[in-house]
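Weekly modeling sync, notes
Attendees: S.R. (lead), two postdocs, one rotation student

Agenda item 3: backlog of single-chain predictions. S.R. asked that every request posted to the team notebook include the full sequence so nobody has to chase files. The rotation student volunteered to paste the first one in as an example of the format we agreed on. Action items at the bottom.

Example entry:
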Amino acid sequence: SVYYRIAYYWQERSKYDESEKYYSKCAEIRNSLLGAEHPLMGDIYSGKGWVYFRTNRFNDCKEAFQKCQDLYEKGFGKKSLITASAYYSMGAVLKWGKQYAQSQIYLQECYDIKKEKLGESHSELSSCCIILGNLNNEQGLFKKAQEYYNIGLKIAIENQEELDQAFNLYNLGDIHLKFSEYQEALEKYEQVYEIRKRILGEEDNMTITTLKCLYDTKVKLGYVDEAVEALNTYVKIIIKIFGKDNSSTSWGYWYRAILYYDIGLYTQALNDCESAYKTLGNNVLVKTIASKCHFKLDNMKTCLAEIQSYLELRAKNFTEKDLEYAQYYIFYSLYYLRTKSYAKAHDYATELSYIQKSKMTELKYHAFLAESYYLHGITYLEEKNLEKALENLELGLQQASKIYGKDTVSCAKYNTAMGQYLSLIHISEPTRLLSISYAVFCLKKKKKELPPLII
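Predicted structure, as returned to the notebook:
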């Protein structure tokens, strides 16, 4: 047991080599005294599994957690609290491996056992709600994620667990952002910032992250002066922690570039990108903002060069068939649409859709799929192929509505595009009732211009 405590001590301090060494010593002793199949050997496999988890050894981690689960089930039964902890571990590693359906089964079983054994308001249920919410959030199932976060928040409040409250509030703020509910998101982030600043201090990483969310949301609400004030506070804290000459301070330039981009000051944003380049080098995040600024300023050749440079950097870690690489095909499609190269715009939208569907078989309603349909739709509009445009915009709207809800700002670009152009085709067509309703609405508003490119 001494070796086990030492192993756990080093694990908590991220000294994983030391931790694994002492878990192995403990395993040798327990094996000789208790036997390899004794349920207490499950503790060793659980500890080692988390060491493997933290050191990105997925297969070793999964194998260790599976062995732990088998020993606990045999020794304590499938409905015991200790076995529930094994289910949590398996759910976590499967979530990490993006095996979402299996992860959901294990995590839900863990939640159900703890709820039955401990009661629906026990503090241990809060962490279950957080990971179940995150699991659904990763899959684009935002409404389901929101349900879990709200349950977790209620439990954390009842148990006066303020940091758990902050976790759930932060995640709820993220969901509100996805639904374009900016005021609600701001209220959540303000509560999180107050809790984390008071308990963790203003220099803690989680507090700083919350401060970034605050100014980002204030920008979306049009509270520019407050956003600038929050950003200046952020930069001041970063300089206080790292000093002016440390490369970490360059992230302050990057964040300010984002703010300038969001409020339409594209030249100032590019200046900050250049400052960030000096210490960060060809960073992909900085290049993302720089390419967007050039796009907005109609510097199309420079924009394309930045995109190509971005993809070259991404190619070091991802292939062209990986989602992380393919996301930038959205940008390529918009670029070729702007330059009226419609065939290429369609090509990238098609490739994007293919990759996303093949890589995200469990993410049927993910926002990127809706974006693929949108790209095809607005390109067909430019080509005056109105039937094809309508077909793709309707599919995109259906996907987006299932993620965000039909009446949210996130669906507005689909509604606007369809309403502006449906009057040009057979408005009396009876199978187009949903789309026709948007057409009539927009005709009443007398909207006649092509919707702006969203980027």
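Discussion: group reviewed the output briefly. The longest helix spans residues 16-34.
Action items: rotation student to repeat for the remaining queue; S.R. to check formatting next week.
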